[in-house]
User: What shape does this take?
Amino acid sequence: MWTERQRAMLAEMGVRVFVQPPQAAPADVLLQDEPMASDPPQSPVADAPPPVPTIARPPRPASAEPPMRTPSAIDTLDWEPLREMVAGCTACALCESRRHTVFGVGHTRAHWMIIGEAPGEQEDLRGEPFVGPAGQLLDSMLMALGLTREEAPPERQVFIANTLKCRPPRNRNPEPEELARCEPYLQRQIALVQPKVILAMGRFAVQSLLRSNEPIGKLRGQVHQYQGVPLVVTYHPAYLLRQPMDKARSWDDLCLAAEVMERGPQAR
Ligand code: URA
Assistant: This one.
């Protein structure tokens, strides 16, 4: 059952929830062509479900190891040295045009890790991921699931990171070389957080994490693995702002990720 606040959040996403008998699946949603709200409410805490006790992580299957790559000094860094290294990074030409690096925000042991593409103008200005219009939609999506980027226990406070830590000029697509240079930072962030589920948003997050050039439409709706962590693919919020018809599909993906969180990777 959805709380009033969660329904309001879903409405902001452009998703209408039918009022169903209590046993109905939450994924029963219908697209609603509504304009986006600009500002989601600040605190979802009051109506959120109670925290779930932490459960032990299953061992990582050897078959789910990522492709071999040369170990680097980054692989052993803890949060602060990692943050400092990103802040001073000059590994690619993006360092010349950036105003701030965008390291990522959230709980350092978050159960949910959200991975986007690259900082845009607002993110570059503020040094925080997803603070522009796409970020407002992302916040609404998270709130609909009882999640937040603001301070909360690790089952509710997500960690948000990007595949690139610097803004590509004029928001052009990331170059393969830039993705490759930045990848060890994201890999280390994932290794430190040890999330229970990863939500990969958009083409470049998927290319980086799954080494796949398949379109999102083909990869969504299933549970993938990244280093033994269940990974769900969905559309990028910026794409959803341009193509609101796909918001209902994206909501299905979030519900799949929530199922994985509840029941484990064999959810579907
Ligand atoms: N799009 C992204 O993928 N990441 C951001 O931080 C902002 C927009």
